[in-house]
Amino acid sequence: MSLDVSPSLLEKAGRGEVDDAEFVACVRESLPYAWQVLSTVIADLEVAEDGFADHETPPPSEAERGQLLRALASDAIRGGLERHFGVKLAFQNCHRVAAFRPTETGSERYREFVSPRGQLLNQSPELRDC
Questions:
Q1: H or E stretch covering 89
Q2: Is residue 20 a part of any domain in this protein?
Q3: Any residues with CB less than 8 A from the CB of 94 and at least 6 apart, and which?
Q4: In sequence order, what DSSP letters do the residues of 94-128 get, joined into one string?
Q5: CA distance 130 to 65
Q6: Angle at the Cα of 19 (from 7 to 73), degrees rounded to 5?
Q7: What are the tens digits of pLDDT across the range 34-86?
Q8: How far apart are CA 47 and CA 43, in angstroms?
Q9: Nearest residue to 95 (alpha-carbon basis) of 28, 10, 31, 38
Q10: What is the pLDDT of residue 90?
């Protein structure tokens, strides 16, 4: 299961009444490691001069790795986080996540990060089964 959804939030979702704030709060509570990683990247982005910040540290365990994968592999979760933080998130491997200012999505740095070439250059034998 990706998220720990309270019965009241599940009931609201059944009625179609869930807003982004409630959804993001559920993500924050359900995926604390992913939230911490993303919060750190966003804080770094706020002081970055080039509109880019990233996190490259492998998670300490498979449980944390799973949280990051669930947060970034789900369109709904990633979209909710991007709207909440006001950023564009990009993801490589099992742990490398970057945040870009929305105005930077046309930049060379963004295009390189999300390109097949960027993905290939970010590989290493120790990350093969991550």
A1: strand 88-92
A2: no
A3: 58, 59, 65, 68, 69, 127, 130
A4: TTEEEEE-GGGTTSHHHHHHHSHHHHHHT--GGGT
A5: 8
A6: 85
A7: 999 999 999 999 999 888 899 988 899 999 999 999 999 999 999 999 999 99
A8: 7
A9: 38
A10: 92
Token digits of residue 14: 């059944």
Torsion sign across C-alpha atoms 31, 32, 33, 36: positive
Residue 18 included in any domain: no
Cβ atoms of 96 and 28 within 8 Å: the answer is no
The reply to whether 9 falls in a domain is: no
Does 83 map to a domain? Answer: yes
> Per the structure, how many domains does the chain have?
1
Q: Which pLDDT belongs to residue 123? A: 67
Domain region containing 106: 32-127
Closest CA to 63 of 2, 124, 114: 2
Query: In the prediction, which pLDDT does 80 show?
Result: 96
Instruction: Report d(CA 3, CA 47) in Å as an integer.
Output: 31
From 55, 68, 33, select the one nearest 122 (Cα to Cα): 55
